Amino acid sequence: MELFDKLLEVSRAFRIPYEYLGYETIQMGNVNHTYKVNFRLPEGKEKSFLVQNVNTYAFRNPVGLMNNIDSVTEHIRAKKPGQLALHFHHTADRKTYLADGENFWRMTNYVPSVTYNTVTDLNVVRSAGKAFGEFQMDLEDFDLSALVETIPGFHDTRKRYADFRRSVEEDKAGRVSSVREEIEYLLSVEDKACCLTDLYRAGKLPLRVTHNDTKINNVLFSPETKEAMIVIDLDTVMPGLMGHDFGDAIRFAANRVEEDCTDYDRAQVNLDVFRAFAEGFLSMTAKTMTDTEVKTLAMSCFDLTAELATRFLADYLDGDLYFNIRRPDHNLVRARCQIALAKDMLKHMDEMEAIVEQCVRNSLARSEERFSRN
Ligand code: GN1
Ligand code: MG
Description:
The chain is of the alpha+beta class. Helices cover 48% and strands 12% of the residues. The chain has 12 helices and 9 strands. It starts with a helix and ends with a helix. The model has no long low-confidence stretch (mean pLDDT 96). It binds 2-acetamido-2-deoxy-1-O-phosphono-alpha-D-glucopyranose and magnesium ion.
C-alpha cells in the first residue's frame, strides 16, 4: 500500500474522522520514521497529528515501550496538571498503538514549535539543560521497577564494546580493513569510555529514571519565547545514570558541528555551550547529586561520545541495519565525527570538570539562599 493511503488508514484507526489532506515526512531522529499528517476540520481550519512508525528492529518490545511512556507521562501530568504534554491517541480498542502485522504505529498531538540541531544561543541551551534536569527530577519518586528496559543494556558501555568487537570479528559487510584506525582508537580508550559503567557496576553510582536520548532536538521550544516547552522522544526512558542524560546532551549540543559533519577537524566541544547546558541542568539536579555523580559528570560526556562512536561504527560494519542512513557511508561519517569530538573532549576535560564543580556550587548556594530567606 502507498504510504499516502497507509497513513490515512492509520489515522482512521486512531479515530481521526476529518478530511485527509496528506502528509509530510519529518526529519526527526535516526531510528523511527515520523510523519506530520494533515486534515481539514469541518469549519475549514487545518489540524495536524504526528504519526510514527516505531522501529521494531531497535525496540523489540514496543508494547512494553508504550506502557513505559504512558506511565511516565501520567506521573508527570499528575504532578503538573495543565502543563503541555504529549498525548497519545487511542484506537477503538483503547490501545495507544496499532500493530498491523508489518509495522507498529502510534499517533500524538502535533505541537507547533521550533527545534535545533546546532545551537549557539546560550539561553536556548540553558533552557534545554533545565528541561532535561527537570525531567529527571519529576521522575525522582517514580518506581524504577515499573519500567521495562526498552533496549536492554542501552548505555551499558561494556556491553556496547562487546557488541562492537563482535561486529569487527564478523565483518559482515567486508568493511573492517578500511576502518582499522577508527577501530584501534576506540579499543584504546575502552577503559576510559567505561568509567561510568564500571562505577555503576561497583555500586558507586545510583540508578535513576533517565531519558537516555537527550539530543537537543528532542526538546520542543516555543517559537515566540525560545523557552523549552516539552521533552519528547520518550522511547528510551529507563533506569539509567544521571551522566547518561548529561553526557548525551553535551555530545550533541556542545559539538561545534552536526553529528554527521565530514569536516572532522571542526568537531570540537564548545565550552560556552557546555557551561550553559550545565548551568540549566545542574540548577535542577545539583541538590540530589552524590559526590561521585558530580565528579564523573564531565567524564560522562566522553563516555557517551565514545559509546555512540562504537555504535555507529558497529552498524557500519554490520551493513547499516540499525540507524537510518541517507548516504552509503553515513554511519562511518557519524562515527568519525564522534571520535574527533571525543578526542577534543579529553583535551578539555579539566576545564569541563571545573565548570561542573562551579555550577554545582552556584546551584547549591542559590538554594541555600532561598532556604534561609524562607
Ligand atoms: C538515535 O531516537 P533518535 O533517532 O533521536 C539513538 C540514540 C543516538 C542517536 C544519535 C533508540 O536517536 O541513542 O544517540 O540516534 N536512539 C536509539 O543520533 O538508538
Ligand atoms: Mg530516540
